[in-house]
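dumping these here so i dont lose them again. two proteins, back to back, each one seq then structure tokens. dont judge the mess
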Amino acid sequence: MATKQKIKILDDNNFRAEIDELYELTDQVDLAKWSISIAKHILHLLGIDYNLVNEIVEGFHSNELWQQYGNSRIQDVRKSGFAVHRLARETDNEIYKTALRAVGQAISSAHMREHSMVASDYATKVIGLLTSNDINAISNEREWQLNELKRVIKKNKNIL
């Protein structure tokens, strides 16, 4: 069953559909790895060194601990995701706010797998905001996301 987009964005529906199909077959740990990779990718594109933002460092760490056989409590992961969303609410810059939403959703992917697709959508929205909705740039981002999901799955061989 296809996931429903929770935010309004200009998108490459074909690439998103491919991602969605693969998402449905992928286990939650690999989805968490994928969404954290997307978040780091978007932060890198914006020139944001997430190592300088304690809430993001702690959130990524909490998610990565969870990936390692549940070595983090879900309530800790959720708390970390909420901390990043609080940062998003505190900024007036729409691009940074959207990037932080992608990060918060990626962190929360340990809580619910659906958060990984929402992180992917927010990352796509960032590209749209950066490029005045250039569909080629948006398609390139979606293609990168699809290839990254395939890479994570292949590396870990975790497909349901």
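---- next one ----
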Amino acid sequence: MSRKKQVRMGPTELTEGVWWVGNGGWGGTRRLSEPGDGNVFLIDGGSELALVDTGLATKNPRILANVAAAGLDPGRITAIFLTHAHCDHAGGAAWLRAKTRARIFAGGVTAKAFRTGEKLLIGGLRPFEKFSFRRPAADRILKDGEEVHVGSLRMKMLCTPGHTIDSCCYFVRIGGRRVLFSGDTVVGNQPRPDLRRIFRGMLGWIDGHWSAPFSTYIASLERLLALRPDIMLTGHGLPNEAVSAADAMRVGIRKLGKIMNDPDLFIMFPFER
């Protein structure tokens, strides 16, 4: 089966050992799972598999069906890594854990959000107020820089507050390539066929209720840029290869800097002075 045909028919192997198994159709991309889902990625570590994020739907059998369609056994999924607490990324975590017995890995602030139900942390305000989901308890809280084995691979968690104060990314070397799972910290350079435009340097939604200060966001982007990823797999939209990923992060840094240097805009964002 050709790669082109795979893209039309089912899950896509984006780079060696990484499959795209969930997506709600954001920005005109091909829908793989339930409407509203953020991107869900599968990592093949040989003896073990892992998911990065779980989509919005509280029951999402299409994700597991896509894993099977990729020729992999869903029963080998042992880990679920969450990039942040927003329900379009974590809504299916409890159900998928029950189905696979995988352990849920998350940062400390994400774990607190699930524990307390704090709306400012989990996005219970607009646009998420109409959604409800079963908040999972994290099986293991990861610290910044901590690594977790997935079979022969080592997933490294990086705290990258910006889009939300609990945002984190994951970095792994697979098949000689540096692979970055950026969640909503960097959405990247994205074509939007529905709007007939290409947007450079897209960042996750910035909201005064849950976002980190812009200076902190810039520091997070600079940290990711220094990793020089060969491919960046974003929380929404299409992957960015190396040149596009670096460009997206640089443009995002410039955009945030421009806002910080315009005092009139602080009327909109009073949390940053």
